[in-house]
Structure formats: C-alpha cells, structure tokens
Task: structure prediction
Amino acid sequence: MLRRRIDGAATSIPSLKKARSRHWALLFTDEASFRQDSTLHATWSRIGHPPEIAVTGERKSIKILGAIELWRTRFDYRQDTVFNAATYLGFLEQLARHYRRQGAILIQDNASYHKDAEVWAWFKSNHHWLEVHQLPPYSPELNPTERLWQHTRKNGTHNRFFGGLDALLATLTRVFEEIQSYPRLIQSYLVPFC
Result:
C-alpha cells in the first residue's frame, strides 16, 4: 500500500481499496525526458581503463508521457515535443480509449500543466468513469511510473551513444515494446505499490 510519513503519522492513498472494490483500473501517470547525449552509469571495466562513450555535443531530447496500470501491469505511452496542458490532454484522450468502459482512478503528480483549467475541465466532463487524485508534493517515490523510467534508462539509454534522435527513439520504442509485450519484466518494480 502506498504510504508516506508526514509529520510522524503514516498516511495512505485510499484509492487502492476503492479501485479494487469498483473493479476499476488504478493508473499512475508521469512524464520523462530522455536525452540524446550519453547518460553515464556505473559499469564494470578493467582497473585503469574506464569505459569511454562518444558524445555528439547536442542536447536534444525525446519527451514521453507514460501511465502504468498497477494490477494488470499495462503500460501506455505517448511521445511528444513538449510537456504542457495540450499534450497532457492528448495523452488523457489516448488513455480514455482504453479505460472509459471499465472506469479508472488516475493518480498524478503536481506538474503545473496537470493543474491547468482545461485539464480539470476535461476531468470534470469525464467524472462518470474517471476519478483523479494528486500525489503529495515532491514524492516521486510514490509513483511506480518513475521505476519504469529507471528501467528504461538502465536497459536502454545508459552508457550508450546515440548519433541522432532517431537512434534514441528506436531504443526507447524497443524498451517500451518489451515492457508492453512482457509485463513480467517490470512486475517486481510494482510489488511495493500493490
């Protein structure tokens, strides 16, 4: 169960029990930028021979909006050029196609565009099948989608050279398709949240 200590008292997100009792999906959303320039991470090498990774000197990135359905381990994502209310609404519409019939509880962080008036108007117009909750401020440890980004970096982007955004996108697509095709790859990341 999701818990956080606040002023010495443990609190929990009541949405877990509610989602189970209604047979609704429990979705966590988040966004991540994956940079073209190399991200270095600890690795093995011979003493005195540290690994070298070429760099292009460019600072371009690919922006991904993602959501994980906690119990079915279903991962949805969308690539976009920026993070703002319009792109978030596009992603919410994508999610609505999958969850409108079943119903869902969506848990999101406190990004400014998540609080935009147009986004909340959309939430209000979809309240019959969607309930929305905010995570506490500055609490990425409570969002399982963060663990998917870590998995993606570890298995796709760390310690690798990308000559262009196309190569980076191909790698991200490969990792995301593996997550979607083989959900057991990420189930261990989600256990602490169930």
The first strand starts at residue 3 and ends at 6. Confidence is low (pLDDT under 50) at residues 1-12.
